[in-house]
């Protein structure tokens, strides 16, 4: 099952606060949502929680020193800053919050914050009066204005005996807020249907015609659309990738099944993305029993499958239609022909003759083609390609 923090690297920064004893639980909750977690422990944090516990739960060496030559050799601080998709500081002490405001870099955590482009979540935990102080409140406002997100502390009895606002937010809530960092509103409120994977066309009860589609490109698009605020329906053929659990998932086998599932659910969709590798032909007859090998040659008569994308494009109140073009030669020319002939609003071209990209690979390189435009997205992971495509769709087609 795909989870909201699948494929996300989260760096957990732990500062000096009694609430640091909850940090191993925060690591676990982030992992529950699919994150790969590494920990940075400040000197203050190390007073409240042991490096060994954090190393055990995170299954990674804990980073605690800017000047540790050995750690720098395995993953230097700049590399660590680049590794992170998100940095969560929980608990964040008043001191670290103040240092962040001033752009200080006098320990590993503050240096990483300056050196990263990752999304940042700050979960303050401190005495209620320290939290209420004008300095802390102004500092938090300043950090918010720099696009950092604050996981507000809770009201309640504190370790020091005071009652007020300053208790660290619950680990589950911090993990969910970390997942929300990746949400945007590019497709806010839109309904998106995506077909993905390979169709399977039976020859007899044990054999079939199919192709190498893994579903990776379509599933990456599903996650990117969900993170952009869309409600996603997936029509899933044969795949070898985890299913996106936040989508409405409909499983199909053949092109005919896929057409039926698409047409029964397309009415309410705003956007249709046809990423499936649909078999163009199927056997005219499916043998009832396993075909015997009693002749030297065997011919199977094939008939054209329905074109699902073209069917959707021809609807009276059609959604925005985006096709894929899987090409091996005359790439741009063939893709432009498909754009025109099928009547889609955009076509995403990939070269499936290159084994580094396209079918089965974790990477892709695509051209986003509309009637008036043709833009290349250079080779990178399908996850990043999907995010860039969602950006393009929201900019150009909505
Ligand atoms: O699944 P992966 O391993 O990650 O690989 C991703 C991919 C290479 C399969 C994907 O990026 C891709 O290119 N998908 C489209 C594959 C394909 O069938 O391309 P095509 O050029 O033959 O078809 C053009 C378009 O018509 C496609 O949007 C296709 O979904 C659609 N089509 C094709 C035939 C058909 N009978 N019905 C259709 O809807």
Q: How would you concisely characterize the structure shown here?
A:
With 398 residues, the chain is an alpha/beta fold. The protein has helices at 23-32, 43-46, 51-58, 69-75, 77-83, 94-102, 108-115, 128-132, 134-145, 171-180, 216-227, 255-265, 308-313, 331-342, 382-397; strands at 9-14, 36-41, 86-92, 119-124, 149-150, 154-157, 163-167, 191-196, 201-202, 208-209, 231-236, 248-251, 271-274, 281-283, 302-304, 320-327, 346-351, 363-369, 374-381.
Using the CA coordinates, give the radius of gyration.
Answer: 26 Å
Provide the domain count: 2
Estimate the mean pLDDT confidence: 96
Structural class: alpha/beta
Range of helix content: 25-40%
Count helical runs. 15
Shape: elongated
Strand arrangement in the largest pleated sheet: 12-11-8-13-16-17-18-19
**Residues in β-strands, percent:** 15-25%
- CATH class assignment of the largest domain: Alpha Beta
CATH superfamily of the largest domain: CoaB-like
Q: Describe the sheet with the most strands.
A: 8 strands, mixed
Q: What is the straight-line distance between the termini?
A: 30 Å
Task: Kindly identify the CATH topology of the largest domain.
Answer: Rossmann fold
What can you see in these coordinates?
- The protein is α/β, with parallel strands linked by helices.
- It folds into two domains: 9-180, Rossmann fold (3-Layer(aba) Sandwich); 191-396, CoaB-like (Rossmann fold).
- It is built from 15 helices and 19 strands.
- The chain has an eight-stranded mixed β-sheet with strand order 12-11-8-13-16-17-18-19, with helices on both faces.
- It is elongated.
- The two termini are 30 Å apart.
- 44% of the residues are buried.
- The mean pLDDT is 96.
- Bound molecules: ligand PMT.
- Ligand PMT binds at residues 213-218, 255, 274-278, 280, 305, 307-309, 323-326, 338, 350, 352, 358-360.
């Amino acid at each position: 099952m795909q989870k909201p923090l699948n494929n996300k690297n989260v760096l957990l920064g732990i500062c000096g606060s009694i609430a640091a004893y909850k940090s191993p639980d925060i690591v676990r909750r982030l992992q529950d949502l699919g994150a790969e977690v590494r920990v940075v422990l400040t000197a203050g944090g190390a007073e409240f929680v042991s490096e060994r516990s954090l190393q055990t739960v995170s299954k990674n060496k804990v980073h605690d020193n800017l000047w540790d030559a050995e750690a720098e050799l395995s993953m230097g601080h700049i590399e660590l800053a680049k590794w992170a998709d998100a940095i969560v500081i929980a608990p964040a002490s008043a001191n670290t919050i103040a240092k962040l405001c001033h752009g200080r870099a006098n320990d590993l955590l503050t240096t990483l914050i300056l050196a990263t482009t990752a999304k940042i979540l700050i979960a303050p935990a401190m005495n209620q009066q320290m939290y209420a102080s004008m300095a802390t409140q102004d500092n938090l406002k300043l950090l918010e204005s720099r696009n950092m997100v604050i996981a507000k502390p809770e009201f309640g009895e504190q370790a020091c005996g005071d009652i007020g606002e300053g208790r660290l937010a619950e680990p589950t809530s911090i993990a969910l807020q970390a997942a929300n960092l990746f949400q945007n509103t590019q497709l806010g409120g839109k309904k998106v249907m995506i077909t993905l994977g390979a169709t399977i066309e039976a020859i007899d009860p044990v054999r079939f015609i199919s192709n190498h589609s893994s579903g990776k490109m379509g599933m990456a698009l599903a996650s990117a659309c969900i993170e952009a605020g869309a409600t996603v329906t997936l029509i899933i053929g044969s795949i070898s990738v985890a299913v996106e659990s936040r989508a409405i998932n409909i499983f199909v086998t053949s092109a005919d099944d896929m057409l039926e599932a698409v047409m029964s659910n397309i009415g309410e969709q705003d956007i249709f993305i046809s990423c499936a590798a649909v078999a163009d032909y199927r056997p005219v007859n499916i043998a009832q029993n396993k075909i015997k090998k009693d002749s030297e040659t065997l011919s199977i008569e094939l008939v054209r499958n329905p074109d699902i994308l073209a069917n959707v494009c021809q609807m009276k109140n059609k959604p925005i239609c985006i096709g894929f073009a899987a090409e091996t030669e005359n790439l741009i020319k063939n893709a432009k022909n498909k754009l025109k002939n099928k009547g889609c609003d955009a076509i995403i071209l990939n070269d499936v003759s290159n084994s580094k990209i396209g079918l089965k690979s974790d990477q892709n390189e695509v051209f986003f083609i509309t009637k008036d435009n043709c833009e290349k997205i250079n080779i990178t992971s399908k996850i990043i390609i999907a995010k860039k495509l969602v950006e393009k769709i929201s900019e150009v087609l909505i």
